[in-house]
Amino acid sequence: MIRFDVISAVPEILESPLRNSILKRAQDKKKVKVVVHNLRDYAFNKHRQIDDKPFGGGAGMVLKPEPFFECIEKLSTERSYQHIIFTTPKGKLLDQKSANRFSLAENLIIVAGHYKEIDDRVRERFATDEISIGNYVLTGGELPALVIIDSVIRLIPGVLNDSEAALQDSFQDGEKIEAPFYTRPADYKGMKVPEVLLSGNDAEIKKWKENQSKILTDKWRKQNEASND
Prior knowledge:
The chain is α/β, with parallel strands linked by helices and 229 residues long. It has helices at 12-18, 21-28, 65-78, 96-102, 120-126, 142-153, 195-198, 202-227; strands at 2-8, 32-38, 51-52, 62-63, 83-93, 107-112, 117-118, 129-132, 187-188, 191-192. 22% of the residues are buried.
């Protein structure tokens, strides 16, 4: 079983996704345990304050270090964590290789930032991994935390109904996009499924899928190269 401890200032954002679909199924099957910690539970001042104005000025509020230290240090006395992941735009872009690496761990902490930032002393003391899910701005780290959890959970044996599904996903075999998929009806509003997929010829179907995968992968690479110019 893999255990995720997620630390969040706004834990309500995490609740619905964790109660549905594959994330719920994995927990019901005891393949994974996800424990969400409300940062305010570790704020021991009178008003349970978790944020304050940044030193040096500037817009926005910064999450205070004390609640994070209290929570992470408490958790670390209870079990050993292979990864303490900080969701941050300054981090390494999440890829399949990282998801595969995280899936080999037993215990992970994900620190989801919110507001302007987290006091950097928290990252300095605890972060083993800093992960971003893209070069854009989000309100907080809760959605990236869910993306990380989802990308890892689907790799756990027995979670997906089709044991081969995760192995055939795009990016599982390097930077490679899967061929298009079709199902019934074979003709819908004049849009027809490629004949080769209806032929029953396994060799030709395999060849078609490989060719389509190559075409889509090349297109994906060009689009991403163009967006980085």
